[in-house]
Specification:
A: mainly alpha, Non-ribosomal Peptide Synthetase Peptidyl Carrier Protein, Chain A, 4 helices, about 0% strand, B: about 525 residues
């Protein structure tokens, strides 16, 4: 899953070091336009349905946060 | 005189400070609440009836939402072993439906006051025009409703809290005085910022003791806010207002100068208020949300809107842009386009539709008139255009071998953004569209000054004397260099000064006080008007 997410992120923003960044939202590295693009890509790639309530910094600050979110969404379904 | 600089308010605030820091912790919130309601009455001369209703609706809706959420959890925990996966889903759906109903009712009630006071005349005008076009002449008298003080700000703040409870981001507040204080907190009731419950209300729970350090910082911020508001904004007002109200009597270069100064006036007025509000709140130990981050150093319009009126823009992002984008219809549209291989369109089309909705409503928020709506929509269109053609711009830059990381290129982009913001201001600064177009035409036809005299270049301010003009321009330059320093060092200057020796601190304090007392309070501006954003 990690590699797939990294691939999506690299395509979206090639200028960011996603392996090591842990404050993508808090530090303003990812903007709202990136977030909405990411939502569509993650929904399709992992077959999960994201909700507005999932759009909190903890879920998108790092790749680990995104993995936890997808796993949680899969468990809920 | 603005409320934050009136002698009456300052005396009352000193009395509040004395009582606030002496009483035990549990009395601090009720005291702030009583002061906030007193402040509301003092400024608006009206009882805060609508604010009380909004508080009650927000309080009850949030509690009900919490009750349904807790009820769902308890029910599912109790029946965990008996229920199948599908049955659990069905129960969750039922509870979700109830929660949505409560939220919608709460939102409709709270927004209906805002809609009634702000948009009734606008809607009636447009309905009558529409009927007249259809051959039905219906006349109506303008109601000219007076907007309750701060209604846009406290309505947005309260509804944001309700949505946060609905999204389970925060738990509903059971302590009514605390919630009432969150809605009515006096430093932000006139012009915001629009606070978030988790960041603002959590500070009401803490014991706040007197701090000399905070007092120094707070006074420094208040004085700096006074310089911005009373020296820059209020002195630029006759120049800008004179030109926008009687543009046909001015030359093209004067209109250009007036519009360039309008951006500075608006920023000095609005951010000056924010500095004063932050300063008073800081003294009490409560940090309010950041509303400006040197917006005129932005290199694009999108960045400008991330740094100007931050609390409103982030409200629209979290509570409107994301929900519209993630609505079932747009998510389906994105999915369909991706399935057909149109990946770029799948990303852009739902984003652009969401942006169009947000910017239409941002315009409407700024004023119940078509120029404001067109202004908002134009902002959105320019940003959509920039996103759509971002790759093409990069291609052009590469073809022209432009060093996009150079300081010169960055300066060019900053100036371009300021000019773009100025150009957009043309839409809503004049009385009608026709006036905006006429003023723009005069400016374009004759942009070179006819005379290089002070009275020609600075009409309006010069009537207040050459010293006032010189001090205003000096204050503008100081604002620019302070902002440049903060931008380069990424620190706030007043914070940096507070780390220097007491001699430096004392000198800055005396200098600020001198300028404010001599050129603002003691001068002609002692009778200056209210804040520009207070009409929202």
């Amino acid at each position: 899953m990690r590699e797939q997410i990294l691939e999506i992120l690299q395509e979206l923003r090639p200028d960011v070091d996603f392996e090591n960044e842990t404050a993508l939202i808090t530090d303003g590295i990812l903007e709202s336009f990136d977030i909405v693009a990411l939502v569509g890509e993650l929904s399709d790639a992992f077959g999960v349905e994201l909700h507005v309530a999932d759009l909190v910094p903890d879920n998108f600050n790092s790749v680990d946060g995104m993995i936890s979110l997808i796993e949680k969404l899969r468990d809920d379904e | 005189m603005t409320v934050f600089t009136s002698a009456g308010f300052i005396i009352l605030f000193v009395l509040l400070m004395i009582v606030y820091f002496v009483v035990p912790k549990k009395a601090q919130t009720p005291i702030l609440l009583a002061f906030s309601y007193g402040f509301y009455f003092m400024v608006s001369r009206k009882l805060p009836v609508y604010m009380l209703i909004t508080t009650a609706v927000t309080y009850l809706s949030a509690l009900l939402l919490q009750r349904i959420t807790d009820g769902q959890k308890t029910y599912l925990d109790d029946k965990k072993a008996e229920l199948t996966g599908d049955e659990k889903k069905e129960i969750k759906r039922k509870f979700e439906k109830r929660r949505k109903l409560v939220l919608v009712i709460g939102l409709v009630i709270n927004f209906s006051f805002l809609a009634f006071f702000k948009y009734t005349d606008f809607l009636l005008d447009n309905a009558c025009s529409l009927l007249a076009n259809l051959g039905l002449n219906v006349e109506h008298q303008a109601l000219n409703l007076v907007l309750p003080l701060g209604i846009s700000f406290y309505t947005f703040q309260s509804t944001g809290y309700m949505i946060d409870v609905y999204r389970k981001k925060v738990a509903a507040e059971r302590n009514l005085p605390k919630l009432a204080l969150f809605v009515s907190y006096f430093p932000q009731i006139i012009e915001g910022p629009i606070g978030r419950f988790d960041r603002l209300a959590s500070q009401f729970d803490q014991k706040h003791s007197f701090s000399f350090d905070r007092l120094k910082k707070g006074i420094c911020l208040i004085l700096w806010g006074c310089v911005k508001k009373l020296i820059i904004a209020d002195n630029l007002a006759p120049l800008v207002n004179g030109i926008s109200e009687n543009y046909s009597q001015f030359g093209g270069s004067q209109i250009l100068i007036g519009m360039l100064f309008y951006g500075i006036q608006l920023y000095a007025d609005f951010s000056g208020y924010m500095d004063m509000a932050s300063g008073y709140s800081k003294i009490l130990g409560i940090e309010i949300a950041e509303n400006f981050r040197r917006p005129y150093f932005s290199t694009s319009l999108a960045e400008f809107w991330r740094r100007w009126h931050i609390s409103l823009c982030s409200w629209f992002k979290d509570y409107l842009f994301y929900p519209v984008f993630m609505s079932k219809g747009l998510m389906k549209l994105g999915k369909k386009l991706r399935a057909k291989g149109h990946r770029e369109a799948a990303k852009n089309v739902p984003t652009f539709i969401s942006m169009a909705v947000v910017w239409f409503l941002t315009g409407l928020w700024h004023g119940a008139c078509w120029p404001e709506i067109v202004w908002g929509f134009s902002n959105g269109l320019i940003m959509i255009f920039s996103l759509q053609f971002a790759k093409a711009y990069d291609g052009v830059n590469k073809a022209l071998r432009i060093k996009t990381d150079s300081a010169v290129w960055k300066c060019f982009r900053i100036v371009r953004t300021y000019l773009l913001v100025t150009l957009l201001n043309f839409i809503c600064t004049f009385a009608t569209f026709r006036d905006s177009l006429s003023a723009f035409a005069i400016m374009i036809k004759n942009p070179v000054p006819a005379y290089l005299s002070v009275s020609y270049l600075f009409p309006g301010i010069i009537d207040r004397g050459i010293v006032t003009l010189a001090v205003t321009l000096l204050a503008c330059l100081t604002l620019f260099f302070v902002s440049l320093y903060e931008e380069k060092k990424n620190v706030l200057l007043y914070e940096a000064i507070m780390k220097k020796s007491w001699i430096v601190q004392g000198l800055v304090f005396i200098l600020l006080l001198f300028f404010v007392l001599v050129f603002a309070v003691g001068g002609e501006n002692g009778l200056s008007g209210g804040f520009m954003y207070a009409q929202f």
